[in-house]
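Query form — protein TetR family transcriptional regulator

QUESTION: What is the three-dimensional structure of this chain?
INPUT:
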Amino acid sequence: MARSQLQIKRMLQYFVDATVEIIEEEGIEQVSARKIGQKAGYTGSTIYNYFEELSHLIFFASMRFATGYLQELPDYLERGQTYLEKYVLSWECFCKHSFAQPQIYHALFIADLGKKPEDILAHYFSIYSSDLIGLTEEIKPLLYNPDLTSRSLALLKLAKKERELDDQTIADVNEMTVLMWEGMLTTILNKRREMDPEEAVDKTMKHIRNAMIILENSDPR
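ANSWER: The structure tokens for TetR family transcriptional regulator are given below.
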């Protein structure tokens, strides 16, 4: 790696580390360019020499808080005997971690980033490639796709290898699942209902399993 590339990578890590510290100490809603710059030892404006928007830096930092999900997901998938079971279990793992850290997962999967999320994610893994070490080939495609609808749909479509399923029903059920997760996460963030993470997981998974019954009973003809 050229010296200039090493310098850029080092600067990116300075700012990401500073952002992670602020999130840990004050919460993600308190992150600002000024605070990041002060903690990293640079002016806040210097950040924009390396990140187009503050949301991109927050995205990078939020990935650090998703390591628990990335590490636990393979164990959840291994418990499934079929792809339909793996699909449900993958959502159970995702709900468990996202509802425990709603601001983090909002930054990763819902917040406006100003550009294609897949480009930002690819940039992240180009810097932090070590995050992929030890992950199965079944998991890696999910990580490289920050769009919840398409990444979960890819896993659900594998179920067609095991049984006849209607393509439109697959797409509809998958969309229902994503919308249920988004609705619950928004409810948690807005504090419109008193609900702890465990209860949120239970309620969401109940609806997801009901949606799967629709898929299992669909006529593929």
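ADDITIONAL NOTE: The chain is about 70% helix and 0% strand.
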